[in-house]
Design goal:
Elements lengths: L2 H14 L5 E4 L7 E4 L1 H37 L6 H8 L2
Antiparallel strand pairs: 1-2
Helix pairs in contact: 2-3
């Protein structure tokens, strides 16, 4: 990720929450930087947990669809994933 992209994301987080997610550290011989606050650290941990939850849910929901597509492909039937998803949503 580029420095600019990271900076813009941090700025967006700063504007989205009342509690600070980062604090600036003073420059010295190695230069300054940003430190993640306890709230920012909790925010990151919760976000990563949410990502894992979504991945597990997606795997559970998509596994039967993918298995059907593979089974039909092996049998020679022509089925696109889009068609299968459209059928499942009805």
């Amino acid at each position: 990720m580029s420095y600019r992209r990271a900076w813009l994301l941090v700025e967006s987080l700063k504007q989205s929450f009342r509690e600070p997610v980062t604090v600036a550290s003073k420059g010295g011989k190695d230069g300054g930087g940003m430190l993640v606050t306890a709230f920012g650290d909790a925010l990151i941990k919760n976000y990563r947990e949410l990502e894992r939850d979504f991945a597990r849910l997606a795997e559970r929901r998509l596994h039967p669809i993918i298995a059907t597509v593979i089974r039909r492909a092996k049998s020679g039937a022509k089925v696109s994933v889009r068609t299968k998803l459209e059928q499942e949503s009805k």
